[in-house]
Amino acid sequence: MKTNRTPFVIRFFAATGCKGWLAIGFFSLLTFVLVPAAHLMLPADHALHVSDYAITLIGKVMCYAIVAVAMDLIWGFAGILSLGHGLFFALGGYAFGMYLMRSIGLDGVYKSHLTDFMVFLDWKEYPWYWTGTEHFLYAVFLVLVIPASLAFVFGYFAFRSRIKGVYFAIISQALTFAFMLLFFRNATGFGGNNGFTDFKRILGYSITAPEMRVTLFALSAFMLMFTLILGRYLMQSKFGRILTAIRDAEMRVMFLGYNPLWYKLFIWTVSAMLCAIAGALYVPQVGIINPSEMSTANSIEIAIWTAVGGRGTLVGPVIGAFLVNLSKSWFTVAFPEYWLFFLGLLFVVVTLLLPQGMVGLWQKLRHRSMR
Amino acid sequence: MFLKIRIKMLSNFSRIVFLLPFFLIVFSLPAYAALDPEIVKQLNAETNEEKVASIKNIALLGTPEAAALLQAMADDALSFSGDTIIRMEGDRAINVATGQEIKPLPENIETLVTNNSTRRALNASLSLLKLFSPDREERIKAAKALEASADALSMPILDQVLIKESDPEIKQIITLTRASIELKNPDPAKRLAAVKSLGESNHPDVKIKLTELTDPANEPDAGVQSAAKESLASLENRLLVGESISRVFTGLSLGSVLLLAALGLAITYGVMGIINMAHGELLMVGAYATYVMQGIFRTHFPEYIDWYVLAAIPVAFFSAGLVGILLERTVIRWLYGRPLETLLTTWGLSLILIQSARVAFGPQNLEVANPIWLSGSIEAMSNVVLPLNRIIIIGFAFFVLALMWVLLNRTRLGLFVRAVTQNRAMAGCVGVPTARIDTVAFGLGSAIAGLGGVALSQIANVGPDMGQGYIVDAFMTVVLGGVGQLAGAVWAAMGLGIVTKLIEGVAGAVIAKIVVLAIIIAIIQKRPQGLFAIKGRFVD
Amino acid sequence: MSDTSVNMAHGMGENLSEPIKNNSILQLSNITVSFDGFRALNDLTLTFQVNELRCIIGPNGAGKTTMMDVITGKTRADSGTVFFNQTIDLSNLSEPEIARVGIGRKFQKPTIFENHTVFENLELAMKVDKRVRHSLFAVVDDLTRDRISDTLRLIHLGEHTEQVAGRLSHGQKQWLEIGMLLMQEPQLLLLDEPVAGMTDDETERTGELFNSLKGKQSLVVVEHDMAFVEQLKSNVIVLHEGSVLCEGDLATVQANPKVIEVYLGR
Questions:
Q1: Contact between C133 and C141 (Cβ < 8 Å)
Q2: In a domain, B477, yes or no
Q3: Does the CB of B262 have a partner CB in chain A at under 8 Å?
Q4: What percent of chain B shows pLDDT beyond 90?
Q5: Are B375 and A370 in contact (CB under 8 A)?
Q6: Is B248:B499 a contact under the CB 8 Å cutoff?
Q7: Predicted local distance difference test score (pLDDT) of residue C13
Q8: How far B532 CA sits from the closest chain C CA (Å)?
Q9: Which of B79, C66, C109, C239 is the most exposed place for a label (fewest CB within 10 A)?
């Protein structure tokens, strides 16, 4: 441990140990240099060429991994199961999607300065909450602020009334459900059922260009690494110890003079914000956002990514997100009938047999082999 | 999503019932009152206009023969040969104008084809003719049907009815109907009289007509305008009462659906503390059981098809109960005391159940028909129509509630369940087989969900995804009512139902849903233990 | 320990005369709490003096734990007032605020952070800024380390510093919790059955620890173990059905016919 004089920045990055930085260095090399190069420079028939499909898929899964880590911060460390993370993810996506929709400009089906769905609804101008969304930076601002504010307000009231455990899970689910209904309405002004799609460009660059694809991919990778470093710092700090203490014995924490409300609220809001950023990165890569992203099923699936990898660890959720989502894309092509059976079984098996997830299994195996 | 009311119009069955008296008259009358062949002939005229005029002219006769003829035409039972309109009875050809058989059988018999405009005229005329039915109920029905749809052409018939009719209620309706036709009379005095008498009406459509007259663009005469406003006000008052009654009724109906969805949860979650996300799928099992019973009755006991729902009740109860016991034995029993894990696991189980249903029955929604005794409706007021299936489901919800109350409070099993949930260790010590009680209690909660499924199959879609729609609402109901409180669940369900419907009337279904969720979240803020929970000393 | 506690109330602990009002650390006046008609506390009035050690005994359901709940803000009184240091109205404060004004509480069942090490348990308990902002940037400095090792010595857990607290024995967990209370530097310690589950040897050492705190901090001990109460040699309050049945030293109280009746049944 360091003395008080070590600058915060150093302490922040030092929290991720040597091994961690080694892994990050390797991962950076892979995602910033090797994969982009393999995609952009190698011809499509080359054995090492990375296809459009692979880039988009991995980019998408990295966004999911960010969400899984965010879920882990609140569930694994603070013991609060949220069934509302799909909402924050989708809201981030919608916030950035507004910018993407504005960037279509006059290239839409109706050649109007309004979005196609607004023309279709016979609207004459943008509703007030669309004001300024044509500016990239303002959209980024919305991504950072809107979901986080919603999380803050909701969390404040929920945590203040000491709602926890299952109650919290259920009312966060209800919140998400309410928003899904809201976004399904055409009159809400976010494209109803169809949501946003047919994006054309970001900052003037075509969204389908390989360079753009690689950029978004690298940005997702960067964000994932940042999330992990942030998570590592938070969890080894005193804050993190208090958080796990709240999870284990909230009464004791209160009687020591800490107000759990602010601790929970802080990590809850940070977690929501990370989800929103992931959502904003996700939407341009998959090219669509619609209200079904807010369905109950999606939010619960996030929990299973975290659980499969191992909650209470930082690398676990990343592993879980990759395992589950890669199997999903394999299953839905190879055996679409059986995907839900597999996913359902995964829920059962992980909670019954692998409470610590893959990481826990790995530790157990290593422990056994060492004996 | 609870709103999918299957509107059943008068089925063929009831049409036959209503026509019976006519046929009786037709065949009992000694002398056949002949129709004018010139008019009848026009039924097969060149142009649609002529055909329609002929239909109206026949209707104006107001005789049973005219009714029978038009009905036959509506049933596509008429043919023609040259200028003669014929009705075939076996291989005999009857001249509809005279009622005599034509001998020898004419040649070139062709079917008389109807099209949309003649059909419309036929239907309108047939309903007019019902005004002359000997059955009072029929006449009232016909008069009410006319109230909104009558036009100036019906005037002569209405006048005729007023002369012939002796029943004051029917006379009243007809008078109002005449008045609403008179609103278009060019004479302001007549319009004024009509407007004034319409203040007595109860019909929602009259409201629209009166509203038009309050607008100077539609009504030049100021006197008529102000009279229209007055009549409108008194009409609206009465309509409001009706609307409120129907709203509260639909609210109760929604509440009973919520209650059925939540009652099983009241045991598994409320009493046992298991967060069963697969609860919706147990409803689904019950609904599919109903579907299967319907199929069995159709193929094996078609004569009793109307009673398949009753047979489905025990089947759904036991099949959902069995699925529940299976889930408890294999999975849930390992998770007692770990609510969040239970939530995830049972969610996984729900996915498996959904996919199983998809594989077994296909992904589409299945058709489950209402038996006769569940279709149709009761008209309590002119604008209050209470569908029978809804009324019966409200009753059914309370039946299930009573059943559950008796099981929990008046049986040994219930005693054991309560004992185990209050103090597991102590119950075990005094010889209660706790593991078995857990299984049975969970099975019971699931079985009750199965009963809910039977009810839902009668008013909502039956498909693999049906359960998902109820799970949030069911949990909300139990949580709001206070965990472990049967009475709380009832109040919460009915309250949620009525409040949702009241808001829906003002703001639409989606907004109502959102507002209600917001209200629930707010209430849980204030009373995390639910509205009806007992205050006590909690051990953390 | 706490600077303000310079033995102002010498000998007050054994003084049976009318308590001096302006020297009270905690004053409960006419507290009533009921749960669904059952009165857990019934017009309870009690005063605790600065730096005094008092024991509270009473049969099950007498309201001992509820009284602690009311003082620490876990349960709100239906009526009555609780004043800390004569001026601070505790009924307006939340649990963490009450803890921060200087009241520490030990639960009946040892409540510690089972997944944290002994060191971390004590670190989290230490009296510092308890806001999020502080704990985000906090580091373990030498001062903290010194305070922790002092406390570790007091509670005899010096050899278990880096051990996960969940692995400690029951008695050690009790000690750790007491150690955490000491790290909080409270003016008033509320101890609910602190020696339950301890061996005789541990119980005696706990008694010594408490006796050494006497005169430096105010202590309220709820206990069933009469040998331990005797060891503390303090004024004893007997609670029954939510109010004070009698008060005095242990021998007097034990001889009181009302107390005998309450304990042995009617």
A1: no
A2: no
A3: no
A4: 15
A5: no
A6: no
A7: 40
A8: 13
A9: C109
Mention every residue, 6+ apart, whose C-beta is less than 8 A from residue B180: B147, B150, B194, B198, B201, B206, B209
Of A220-224, B183-187, C144-148, the one with minimum mean pLDDT is: B183-187
Residue with tokens 């939540």: B262
Q: What's the rounded Cα separation, in Å, for the pair B334 and B474?
A: 24
List C-alpha distances in Å: C134 to A263, A266, B66, C99: 11, 13, 94, 17
- Tell me, letter by letter, the H, E, C secondary structure of B303-346: HHHHHHHHHHHHHHHHHHHHHHHHHHHHCHHHHCCCHHHHHHHH
Residue B156 located in a structural domain: yes
User: For residue A107, what is the DSSP state?
Assistant: G
Cβ-contact A220, A63 below 8 angstroms: yes
Average pLDDT over residues C138-159: 88
pLDDT for residue C23: 80
What does the alpha-carbon distance between residue B65 and residue B111 come to, in Å, rounded to a whole number? 20
Helix H or strand E encompassing B270: none
Tokens of A290: 């619609």
Q: Tell me: the pLDDT tens digits for A14-58?
A: 888 888 889 999 999 988 888 888 888 888 888 888 888 899 999
- Domain boundary among the residues B220, B253, B285 is at B220
Number of domains forming the structure of chain B: 3
Higher pLDDT, A117 or B205: A117
Residues B303 and B416 in one domain: yes
Q: How close B335 gets to chain A, by Cα (Å)?
A: 8
- Domain presence at residue B368: yes
Inside any domain, residue B399: yes
Rg (CA), chain C: 18
Domain boundary among the residues B65, B89, B117 is at B117
The single residue listed with the structure tokens 């309370």 is: B398
Q: Transcribe B489-528 into DSSP letters.
A: HHHHHHHHHHHHHHHHHHH-HHHHHHHHHHHHHHHHHH-T
C-alpha to C-alpha distance for B191 and A64, rounded to whole angstroms: 70
Provide the residue ranges of all domains of chain A, joining segments of one domain with +.
Answer: 50-307
Interface-testing mutation among B344, B350, B500, with chain A (most A C-beta atoms within 10 A):
B344
Nearest by CB to C141, from A4, A241, A263: name it: A4
Residue C200 burial by Cβ neighbours in a 10 Å radius (0-12, 13-18, 19+): exposed
The residue to which tokens 């959209």 are assigned: A139
Residue with tokens 């075939």: B88
Quote the CA–CA distance of C208 and C231 in Å, as a whole number: 8
8 Å CB contact of A177 and B510: no
Distance from CA of B538 to the nearest CA of C (A): 10
Q: Do A175 and B517 touch (CB under 8 A)?
A: yes
Assigned token pair, B132: 């002359």
Over residues B357-386, the mean pLDDT reads: 82
Residues B101 and B158 in one domain: no
Q: Are residues B202 and B261 in the same domain?
A: no
Give chain A positions within 8 Å (CB) of C143. none
Q: How far apart are CA A30 and CA A24, in angstroms?
A: 10
Q: Are residues B306 and B337 in the same domain?
A: yes
- Tokens linked to C180: 């955490």
| Phi, psi angles (nearest 5°) of residue B92 | -100, 140
Q: B407 with B295, same domain?
A: yes
**Residues in chain B closer than 8 A to C66 (CB atoms):** 537
Helices then strands, counting H and E runs in chain C, come out as 10, 10
Question: Which residues constitute the domain of residue B448?
Answer: 244-467
Tell whether B408 and B315 lie within a shared domain.
yes
| Predicted complex ipTM | 0.87
Phi, psi of C45 (to 5 degrees): -125, 125
Strand C88-89, strand B78-81: pairing: unpaired
The H or E element that residue B169 is part of is helix B168-182
DSSP state of B462: B
